[in-house]
Amino acid sequence: MKKYKDLSSFAKTNIKCYGIVILAFLVMYPLQSSGMISHSISGQLVPICTYVVMAISLNLTVGFLGELSLGHAGFMSVGAFSGVITAISLSAAVPSPTIRLIISIVVGGLFAGIAGLIIGIPVLRLKGDYLAIVTLAFGEIIKNIINCLYVGIDEKGLHFSMQSDAALGLSEMGRVIMKGPQGAVGITKTATFLSGIILILFALFVVLNLVNSKTGRAVTAIRDNRIAAESVGIGITRYKLTAFIISAMLAGMAGALYAQNLSAVAATKFDFNTSILILVFVVLGGMGNIFGSIIAATLLYMLPELLRGLADYRMLIYAIILIIVMVATNSTQSKQIIAKIKSSLRTRKSNGEGADL
Amino acid sequence: MKKFTEILSIFAVSALALSSIAGCGAQKKTDTADTAAGSSAAVIKIGGIGPLTGAAAIYGNAAKTGAEIAVEEINALGGDVQFELKYEDDENDAEKAVNAYNKLKDWGMQISLGCVTTKPCIAVSSEVFSDRIFALTPSASSTDVIEGKDNMFQMCFTDPNQGVASAEYIKEQSLGTKIGIIYNNSDAYSTGIYNKFVAEAEKQGLEIVSTQTFTDDSANDFSSQLNAVKAAGADLLFLPIYYTPASLILSQADKMQYEPKFFGVDGMDGILTLENFDTKLAEGVMLLTPFAPDAEDELTQKFVEAYKAKMGDVPNQFAADGYDCVYSIYNAITKAGIKADMSASDMCETLVATFTSPEFVYDGLTGTSVTWEATGEVSKKPKGMVIENGAYIGMD
């Protein structure tokens, strides 16, 4: 068997990423099911899973594709609401909540993927920062449309309206799923920690394999030098679009899981601030570093909850910690210190190995 | 690529930092109520959730302070019932509210004050329902909050109730013949009232000549909406919105010399205490509200004084709702003889039975002879107020 350090970097990343997720599951799952951990931590498990998936998916766009997406919460929103509508519509036809959850996550991913395709086709053909601007607008447009959208269901099928719930024209048996600015209410909570972990593993499987494939190498080539990539015959738009749609789909799936962990979800949740929050996870974890995204999303999500003891100063301290982390990990001095520690560890290790001989 | 990374990092973090510290100011005093019940002897733990930071912090902090005043008063009585109150921040977000709720559960909360705002409260109410913890929200007014949950109660009117009451009031007092409406269609509260108002206005035979909308993002300029309403010839403008956008509408209407009658709901309450707002503009504005800070009765005066001493300004109805929540729970506890060592679920069943029993009547700041339906809806009379010389005067 090969030693860890002799493995290819792809295999190393794989072991690290899958390893940490599986380890987290093996530690937390028994603790959660036996009620050994506090309600507070137990309640955060599913949201952490969704934000990890969001960070992985955004890392594909920002880290590997090198395009700035400022409206990633918009895809999450599309996935969340299409997933909720699917889940509620199927509540009679599919009695098993697990299967319903899976179907709704798939549908959420599909709709978000379609949204990604619609924006991607015109925008990814452009050069420069246009993607950032258009995704920003997209997030806001989605938010405002869903804010006006009323959806209901009765035995005749789904009804849509932009006016009011009365305008849906539902029969006696009917039920309103989405109430404009109030969002979707009365969602059955079906998301579990296990489903969250499975979704993370799925996202990792898709992204890590994509990045290590021919398509992934083409995508990173486009990021590093667009002209050089074009000159060796890489179809820029096609590869960009592939990566972008996959990223959107994963975000939609995360959204569907997110919504089914709460009994009510409103469009205003998926605003610019949420997009930026996910971007911060990606940037602090390191762009193009999937392992970093997982760790950053987990820690930064838990941080404000851990700081609750500080009461009024909580959000202030949170912001300051973010800035310190950002500055510390980027400054040359701190990088030198980390490098020094690493090299001293290495020499100590090799000395130790030498002594064995 | 490196430069891109750096610029992006700085941009992202500063945007997040700004958004999170916006609205951190207001709070002056820290949780004195926490320590008020110092003895380790049986205290009943009450947990509240509300936006203590962010754009909606004004409502959360008001409700929190109101509840704190009530807890301090009750503990000072030195009776058998002693409370310990803890408020957690939800940033007006359903997800954070559930986190805050779990945190309070870890703390040992026995009775919940729900959430201050509607959207988070809908999410928390289903948690409360499945955990069997009694909850009484001061101000989450949508019917979705209480629907299908027998242990979730409201201290404020429901949105439909306000819409219907407004339409009836306008008809009864024949305040206007041609009605214009400006409402916030990105807000659940505003849209809820609007929908019911329109339905009831049709029944009452009121004529609505123009309906204009705005969203949270576009609440900076209302000239186009006002022009449309004016062009339609509306002589009464119904504003089912919060007081901050309402104050802008009043001043812009004044500038364009448009002088209809203005009619608001309880969200309009607070307009007189708004900083840099010329209260002359609010002359003649009518509103339905359960609470008037300058009411003559002893209870209100005592409360306003205590609030002023604590926060330095005049309380709004959110503060009064928070105060009433704690006192109605206190009354129910003394009536049913609940002890602090009871489990939260036993307490819940007893409180539900007490609150829904016809003999349980509460007199407080936001209404007299207040009772509760089995649905959790409160039953009290809205008070019609008109602003004259910078103060509320009862209309009836």
Question: What report would you give on this structure?
Answer:
The complex is a heterodimer of chains A (357) and B (396). Chain A is built from 13 helices and five strands. Chain A has 357 residues and is mainly alpha-helical. In chain A, a hairpin with a 2-residue loop joins β1 (150-154) and β2 (157-161). Chain A has helices at residues 9-33, 39-64, 72-89, 97-123, 130-148, 193-211, 214-224, 226-231, 236-259, 272-285, 290-306, 314-330, 332-356, and strands at 150-154, 157-161, 175-179, 184-185, 264-265. Chain B is α/β, with parallel strands linked by helices and 396 residues long. Chain B folds into two domains: 27-157 and 299-379, Rossmann fold (3-Layer(aba) Sandwich), CATH 3.40.50.2300; 160-289, Response regulator (Rossmann fold), CATH 3.40.50. In chain B, the strands form three sheets. A seven-stranded mixed sheet of chain B has the order 7-6-8-9-10-14-15, with helices on both faces. In chain B, a hairpin with a 2-residue loop joins β11 (362-364) and β12 (367-372). In chain B, α3 (57-77) runs parallel beside α11 (317-336), α4 crosses α5 (118-131) and α11 (317-336) crosses α12. Chain B is globular.
Describe the SSE topology:
The complex is a heterodimer of chains A (357) and B (396).
Chain A: H1 9-33, H2 39-64, H3 72-89, H4 97-123, H5 130-148, E1 150-154, E2 157-161, E3 175-179, E4 184-185, H6 193-211, H7 214-224, H8 226-231, H9 236-259, E5 264-265, H10 272-285, H11 290-306, H12 314-330, H13 332-356
Antiparallel strand pairs in A: 1-2, 1-3, 4-5
Helix pairs in contact in A: 1-6, 2-6, 2-9, 2-10, 2-11, 3-4, 3-5, 3-9, 4-9, 6-9, 7-9, 10-11
Chain B: H1 2-21, H2 32-36, E1 44-50, H3 57-77, E2 83-89, H4 94-107, E3 111-115, H5 118-131, E4 134-137, E5 152-154, H6 159-172, E6 178-184, H7 188-204, E7 207-214, H8 223-231, E8 236-239, H9 243-255, E9 261-264, E10 286-289, H10 298-311, H11 317-336, H12 344-356, E11 362-364, E12 367-372, E13 378-379, E14 383-388, E15 391-394
Parallel strand pairs in B: 1-2, 1-3, 3-4, 4-5, 6-7, 6-8, 8-9, 9-10
Antiparallel strand pairs in B: 10-14, 11-12, 12-13, 14-15
Helix pairs in contact in B: 3-11, 4-5, 6-7, 11-12
